[in-house]
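Sequence only, no structure available. Ideas?
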Amino acid sequence: MKIYSIALCRVSTLEQATEGHSLERQEENVIRASERLNAPILRTWRIDQSSRSGKNLKRKDLQEMLEFCKHNNSVKYLIFDEIDRFMRSIDEYFYFKVEFLKLGVKFYVASDETSNEDSSVGKFNRVIKIYQAEMSNDERILKCTNGLKARVVAGYNPFHPHPGYKRTDTPGLHVPDPMRFTMLQKTIREVLSREFTLSEALGRLNDNSYRTLAGRKLQIDKFIKILKEPFYAGIIRIKDWPESKGLHQPMVTWSEYEQLQEIITGRKVRPYKKGNPDFPLNRIMTCVCGGKLTGFWHVNGSKKGWKRAEYRCRGCGKQYIRENVHNGLDDILKEIALDNNNEEKFVKALKEVWREEQQVNIKHIETLERRSGELKNKKNQLAIALVTENDYKQDIKEALEKIKTEISMLESQITEAKNIEKDLVEFIHFALNFTHSWKSEWWELKNDYRVKCKELLFPQGFSINHNKKVYTAQISPLYRFVTTKKEPDLVSDSHLVEPRGIAPLSKKRFNNC
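Reply:
I predicted one. Tokens follow.
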């Protein structure tokens, strides 16, 4: 019985087509392999498609191959140039290997004979090749994701522009699409004023000739999606990535955005307040067992009106009197000061951060000014045409008004961006003042800021030891413990404060450990 084969030639990116993975080269290799096997190729699949873990089980080309082999019993080989040209997922590679074997079809790698051997060495080579392919794919996906995430944190939207916005020459920087932006903003104002319902406002928008990029009327579900999108309030929010303030011009204020959510849901939106002011160390302080502490009021049933504020460990259940815990932390904070030896390094780091921030801001201003200049030139051309053209005066006037509106918005953005530029000296003064004074204001800080300050000062956090005393295993290199005349050099440059299981250096110095 004459045997045959089928072949797969695939590139997943344009770059691969120019880096030795071209379809033509793959075809030549699989043809030569079929000749060695004496199994002519009945059909070849040529595709341009990525192979991503978890998304291959329904790949159209693989399903077609399986179906083809079911109806052609003489097919005994599936030939591909290299393993990563077939699959970049270990689990899915072996899944399809079994599925094809059920039909009597073997995999054959055209460019690597060692991977076709049935010996233990050949099996090992196959496993290594598919493992390397999966790791390479994961690394490429991770780099792409991290790059996009960094752009979002910087205030850019690296994805498709939202309705009412359009792209600029700067990737990820979107500016208002003059006509759609203005029309959407006006409609949102109508919703906010409660003058019209959502459906009525949408009807007026479509009646005023608003159309999507596809030329269709805006549907109610898409309209509500727009109203729910925080991008229109100046915030870029992508899944579980860090939220950031965008560089684009907002369509509404954050207060207006919250009002819109109330109108959509019919419920009052109450801002979520993190932290209990009675127990500021909730989930910040840890117990000796490693569990987080949460505050509660201990009520004694036998004594009417008696209650006491305490912290309880969520792990082991141990309880600590709130005042003792707070006083213990206060004693540690009092003995910490900024290390003068590291202050110069700190200022240098602040200057570098400042320059990086200013670079982003300067680039943003340059983009806005360039766009403004282009529009002004266009406005001048239309003004000249208005004098010379009699037949299109009305159209020219309308175009001029739109350009003037966009120029006005750009000028406003430029002014706002320039106002963001702060004096470097003031910036450094503020930062140093904060590092000097924040510990005295520890208990007045908002919960989010208190958590950040804890991470800045106590990299390993602070905890309760076996004796119910507050201690920390490390403080930031920016700080030091204040020295005394009796102990001038004992702990002045130390960053360690009684790691667990080690006795304190001095009872006087570490009476809270």
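The first helix runs from residue 14 to 17.
Hope that gets you unstuck.
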